[in-house]
Write a structure and sequence with these properties.
Helix content: 25-40%
CATH architecture: 3-Layer(aba) Sandwich
Largest sheet: 5 strands, mixed
Structural class: alpha+beta
CATH superfamily: Gcn5-related N-acetyltransferase (GNAT)
Number of domains: 1
């Protein structure tokens, strides 16, 4: 039976390994996705990041947080051999419920254009691309 639970920093090594080796279409960076960066994110968002486990083995992840106005989902992955069993949907459902409890009612996420499988998954769950909006970002140094 698959268990969905809150992500803890002690899960970091297993979670990072899934992010790094088990899927295409995820972009990791050495600051935000370091153990220190994830620890900071989990402390700021203690109720909205989850893992899926099968017999104690982490097989899926989802991270989400909010700024008080809008939620944002990151790093949603289910191992290939576990896909198409509703696990991803359960992870998303847990995030939605967690954000609703914090009075957040709009959620955004980013998907790479070439990641057709992820785009199909998110569309099935009602997350639609916006044609009127361009997402921009800038990396600033730690100094």
């Amino acid at each position: 039976m698959i268990n969905i639970r809150l992500m803890m920093i002690t899960d970091y090594d297993d979670v990072y390994n899934i992010w790094k080796t088990s899927t295409q279409g995820i972009n990791l960076n050495e600051i935000d996705d370091s153990k220190k960066g994830i620890s900071k994110f989990l402390k700021r968002n203690p109720t909205s990041c989850f893992v899926a486990e099968d017999k104690g083995r982490i097989i899926g992840t989802i991270m989400a947080g909010h700024d008080g106005r809008r939620g944002f989902i990151y790093h949603t992955i289910v191992l290939k051999e576990y896909r198409n069993n509703g696990i991803g949907q359960k992870l998303v459902y847990n995030v939605i419920k967690a954000l609703q409890k914090e009075d957040i009612y709009k959620i955004a996420l980013g998907v790479y254009n070439e990641n057709k499988e992820a785009r199909k998954f998110w569309k099935k769950l009602g997350f639609l691309p916006r044609e009127d909006f361009i997402y921009c970002d800038k990396i600033i140094s730690k100094n």
